[in-house]
DNA sequence: ATTTTTCCTTCGATAAAATCGAAGCATGAA
DNA sequence: TTCATGCTTCGATTTTATCGAAGGAAAAAT
């Protein structure tokens, strides 16, 4: 009994894309191929990884477990290829892990700062915990995310605030015009795309809605903020994003501002494995927010999730 | 450009076995298959992974890098298969990581204690750092090793001493008899197999040799202690091992005791991700040494490499 | 209620790959 | 030199992956 990594790779793409059809498209093969290979994987493991739901598929419990491993495995594979393919070139690399929930545009803005230093960014996405583990193992230089590292985690990493980014509600074309008048009360009943409930910003927005007696019609919830905005682009609903990205949001998602959400900020963090940043690329990233959105003053202090004075080792008796 | 994981797997086995021929044997395919597939991998990466040396092969620099990744990738694959294949059975699992330097017999003795609890041990080997990372991610319950977790590590883990194991010099057949008389001075000039210099026991032994003006003839150095003893079995030289294993050493390695090394002990450690052990299997392992070699008293205190009072987080301003 | 559309799956033929036998080529030992 | 060992190359063969065609089942549209 041996694991077939090609099957696993197909499984991984399907799980990521959420559909056999899209996975087949991305892989450049026919759907029935993908379907068949996954069937073989399930047979060899003796467990079903997907269960039919509607006309689509959802991961089973075993599937979720497998996805966790697959993420790690193929992240390593990519990293290996990166390290070997042009590792000879040895240009200064900046290995960045990007959390799903972080808007891609924010990530771009942050990493862009390092490009000026003729750094070659190598970006990976993945589950928050796995990215932190890679950080601890020095496979990544920094992780960009929307929440500080969990205090309960077993990894000793350091969270650096990238400041507070004011949040604005956007809408594509007609939507923006329709709800701009009478903001924010106009949002009552308005179609809205929001992050899923495990997201910090979602909590703050819900609170703000409640205190203003606004009950939006939540037409979609997304873990991946890029996906959220892509749906927003189609006019499915209004959506939140940082004020600082207004230009980019207009350009890429064809959306205009509806109104500023007062008192609600999104927090972004750069997580490093060292308290004291040494990598020039990471330093560049940390210096971004002060130039970007901080009319309100410098809000970039360092939060450590660990006591630094390590080594409470008791010798033996 | 896409990494072919089957090719990588062949590369991995060849690198581990040190020879295409043996790898082919282990994989159950013809040598020219293995050779061909590795050639394709090298072509797709644009780098040679093996260089000919004599009539064999050695890893190139790129090959060593690739091996590091491959180790991780296929360890994950194994773990995934383990987790899924009979995960349904959900017998209590005890996932143990075993450091290379730990004698397999010691590992066996320790894990054996958990078997009484009808635990199903799942053992992995690997580089120390990688095992610790797996521990921090809760993919392993405990790591058994010959040194405490590095204080400098970015992982928050706890090292529990498994006591001090007195060390004895062993030798197979004739060797033992030849050097037993006049021990320890007889060791001067004696052929000796020792751990590599990065090993803690090696340091202590060297010190003891020096203070007794003994200069053994070091005929071999090994990272893997099982390999060391296997060579010892052939009569290549004397070798050190814990006294407590005398019976096993005699049985498996056909070697008798030459003499006790006074004042030199080997330290073993169980590393866990929690300060307070909860897993009954891990508890069983921790209780072993007291029953095994401690006429000299109980020497099982807990060493933490971390201050426990976590959460030195500074809020934002 | 029915049709249509959208997905996923199954079946058998076809294309691609991995594999193996045979032969060749180096290196170190006899 | 000759032999033994270990890796590689070449072409035939087997195994595996892939795709066209057809079918079924759930949601959306009528």
What does this structure look like?
- The structure is a homodimer of 317-residue chains.
- Chain A is built from twelve helices and eleven strands.
- With 317 residues, chain A is of the alpha/beta class.
- Chain A folds into three domains: 5-80, Winged helix-like DNA-binding domain superfamily/Winged helix DNA-binding domain (Arc Repressor Mutant, subunit A, Orthogonal Bundle), CATH 1.10.10.10; 90-163 and 268-304, Periplasmic binding protein-like II (D-Maltodextrin-Binding Protein, domain 2, 3-Layer(aba) Sandwich); 164-267, D-Maltodextrin-Binding Protein, domain 2 (3-Layer(aba) Sandwich).
- In chain A, the strands form three sheets. In chain A, strands 3, 4, 5, 6, 9, 10 and 11 form a seven-stranded mixed β-sheet that branches.
- Chains A and B meet through α1, α4, α6, β6 and β11 of A and α1, α4, α6, β6 and β11 of B.
- The structure holds a DNA duplex (30 and 30 nucleotides).
What is the C-alpha radius of gyration of chain A, as a whole number of Å?
22 Å
At the fourth level of CATH, the homologous superfamily of the largest domain in chain A is: Periplasmic binding protein-like II
| SSE run of chain A | HHHEEHEHEHEEHEHEHEHEHHE
CA-CA gap between termini of chain A: 48 Å
Fraction of helical residues of chain A? 40-55%
């Amino acid at each position: 009994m041996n694991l077939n990594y090609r099957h696993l790779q197909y499984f991984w793409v399907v799980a990521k894309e959420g559909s056999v059809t899209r996975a087949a498209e991305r892989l450049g093969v026919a759907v029935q191929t993908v379907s068949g290979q996954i069937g073989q994987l399930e047979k060899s493991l003796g467990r079903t990884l997907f269960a039919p739901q509607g006309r689509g598929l959802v991961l089973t419990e075993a599937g979720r477990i497998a996805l966790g491993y697959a993420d790690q495995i193929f992240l390593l594979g990519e990293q290996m290829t990166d390290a070997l393919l042009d590792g000879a070139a040895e240009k200064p690399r900046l290995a960045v892990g990007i959390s799903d929930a972080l808007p891609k545009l924010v990530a771009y803005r942050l990493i862009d700062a390092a490009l000026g230093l003729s750094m070659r960014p190598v970006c990976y996405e993945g589950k928050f915990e796995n990215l932190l583990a890679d950080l601890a193992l020095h496979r990544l230089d920094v992780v960009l995310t929307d929440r500080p590292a969990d205090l309960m985690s077993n990894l000793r990493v350091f969270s650096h605030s990238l400041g507070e980014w004011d949040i604005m509600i956007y809408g594509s074309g007609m939507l923006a015009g329709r709800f701009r008048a009478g903001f924010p009360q106009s949002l009552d009943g308005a179609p809205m795309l929001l992050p899923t409930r495990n997201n910090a910003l979602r909590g703050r927005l819900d609170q703000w809605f409640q205190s203003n007696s606004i009950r939006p019609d939540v037409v979609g919830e997304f873990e991946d903020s890029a996906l959220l905005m892509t749906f927003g682009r189609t006019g499915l609903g209004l959506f939140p994003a940082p004020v600082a990205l207004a230009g980019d949001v207009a350009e890429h998602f064809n959306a205009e501002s509806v109104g500023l959400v007062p008192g609600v900020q999104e927090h972004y963090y750069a997580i490093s494995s060292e308290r004291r940043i040494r990598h020039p690329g990471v330093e560049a990233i940390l210096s971004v927010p002060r130039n970007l959105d901080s009319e309100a003053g410098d809000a970039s202090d360092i939060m450590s999730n660990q006591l630094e004075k390590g080594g409470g080792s008791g010798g033996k008796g």
